[in-house]
Write a structure and sequence with these properties.
The protein is an alpha/beta fold and 446 residues long. Helix content is 38%, strand content 21%. The protein has 16 helices and 15 strands. Helix 8 crosses helix 10, helix 13 packs parallel to helix 14 and helix 14 packs antiparallel against helix 15.
């Protein structure tokens, strides 16, 4: 965490920042792979499932996402020369020996991401009946691994992605559209790697670990349809480029093959293993809080909705804890995960976690003994270089200016001027948003 000294300064803020660091470290894919994957002779064990490597002529690695580089490095550490080759796409590269780690961009797909994903799919097309395809999947994969379907350009994908991100649509809705504009998503990679055996290791950034939503489900069945993708665009008033509108219309009329659903035989040889998720981060926060003498409470790993509204609820809970000791007594740490959204009405700079933090700071104004941190665990909140922010009762002295920043979706400059932005750089993981409230006793001391 950059400039940690400026961000702290009180016991509550320091503990909140320590909790955030612990949560991000818990989502470390190297740690998750070390705990979930082992090799004993020819026997590869993932969770409770074993695979006999002697049964396969090749072990090939595919995939990507924010954690793709670290996952590639970690799986090489387990399998070494047993890996024949591989391609992983990420925005946080790592040094590897047998797996090509290629570049992509997040949160808006890029041309280099298209080229990298094309290389991966070409490799997947070579999979045979005796190929073991290990697929490394993590959050951010939807943008990092674009593979426009036939007739769709990257610029068309970028346009509709930006419109969906600005609309306040939830990630499942966004991905319903992405899947039906892609040759990779919505089970597309599993289809391309058939008839090989496909085994996915997944670091989840999705509420409830819905396999079809994490990185748009490249190895998972897709229950959404072309018709539903059309409805998402209509619901948010988005007029897509003609190529996308045409594809969705033709798909809805049965002229384009649907993404594979759970009944598709391609999934007979597919296993998906979630090895880390948002709850992993929350458990780490809970454990650290307890070690530091605070009562911990995991509020929820599934918080969603408009960021500034969710912030008010979190502050209300902190106030209740401090004032009445309900639902637990101070000193306490309340944490939550999930993914909030922002409906853009202005044209400023910021992200969901920064808006969450500033909205909370307005509510906390003048209140002692409460500090809040809110970050995206991949280190990128919105399209900024900040992961999120830390605030307390002294962060806002000019509420009207703060409210104006929220109204214009321009919270980044406001928080930057007050040394509140948390900058981690790319963390090499992504287990969704993480929020921590530290609540001192009613006198404000710890």
């Amino acid at each position: 965490m950059q400039d940690r000294e400026a961000l702290g300064g009180t016991a509550a803020r320091d503990l909140a920042l320590d909790c955030i660091e612990a949560g991000i470290e818990a989502g470390d894919p190297e740690r998750a792979i070390a705990e979930s994957v082992s090799l004993d002779g020819d026997r590869l064990t993932i969770g409770e499932t074993s695979y006999d490597l002697a049964s396969y002529a090749d072990v090939v690695v595919f995939g990507g996402g924010n954690a793709g580089g670290r996952m590639a490095s970690a799986i090489e550490g387990v399998l070494g020369k047993r890996i024949s080759r591989g391609v992983v796409v990420t925005d946080a590269p790592e040094e590897t020996d047998r797996i090509e780690v290629l570049p992509g961009d997040h949160p808006v797909p890029s041309e280099r991401g298209v080229e990298s994903t094309r290389r991966m799919l070409e490799l997947a097309d070579d999979a045979a009946d005796d190929t073991l395809a290990l697929v490394l999947v993590s959050g951010g994969g939807s943008a990092l691994m674009p593979a426009p379907a036939e007739g769709i350009t990257l610029s068309a994908l970028q346009e509709v992605t930006e419109a969906l991100l600005a609309s306040g649509a939830e990630i499942g809705e966004i991905n319903a559209v992405r899947k039906h504009c892609s040759a990779f998503k919505g089970g597309g990679l599993a289809r391309r790697a058939a008839p090989g055996t496909v085994v996915s290791l997944i670091v989840s950034d999705v509420i409830g670990n819905d396999l079809s939503t994490i990185a748009s489900g490249p190895t998972a069945p897709d229950a959404t349809t072309f018709e539903e993708a059309k409805e998402v665009l209509s619901r948010y008033g988005i007029d897509p480029p003609e190529a996308i509108a045409s594809r969705l219309e033709r798909g809805a009329e049965g002229e384009v093959a649907e993404t594979p659903d759970a009944e598709d035989p391609v999934f007979d040889r597919v296993d998906n293993h979630v090895i880390a998720d948002g709850f992993s981060a929350l458990e780490a926060v809970r454990d650290l809080a307890s070690e530091r003498g605070s009562e911990p409470l995991i509020l929820s790993s599934s918080v969603r909705g408009e960021a500034r509204e969710a912030a008010k609820t979190h502050v209300a809970i902190a106030e209740e804890v401090q004032r009445t000791g309900n639902p637990l007594a101070a000193p306490a740490v309340v944490c939550s995960g999930g993914e909030t959204t922002v409906t853009l009405r202005g044209d400023g700079t910021g992200g969901p976690n920064q808006e969450f933090a500033l909205a909370a700071a307005i509510e906390l104004r003048g209140r002692e003994g409460i500090a809040l941190t809110a970050v995206d665990t991949d280190g990128i909140d919105g399209a900024t270089d900040a992961a999120g922010a830390v605030v307390d009762g002294e962060s806002v002295s000019d509420p009207e200016t703060a409210r104006a920043a929220l109204a214009e979706n321009d919270v980044y400059p406001y928080l930057e001027e007050r040394d509140s932005l948390i900058e981690t750089g790319a963390t090499g993981t992504n287990v969704n948003d993480l929020r921590v409230l530290v609540i001192a006793n009613p006198e404000g001391s710890r």
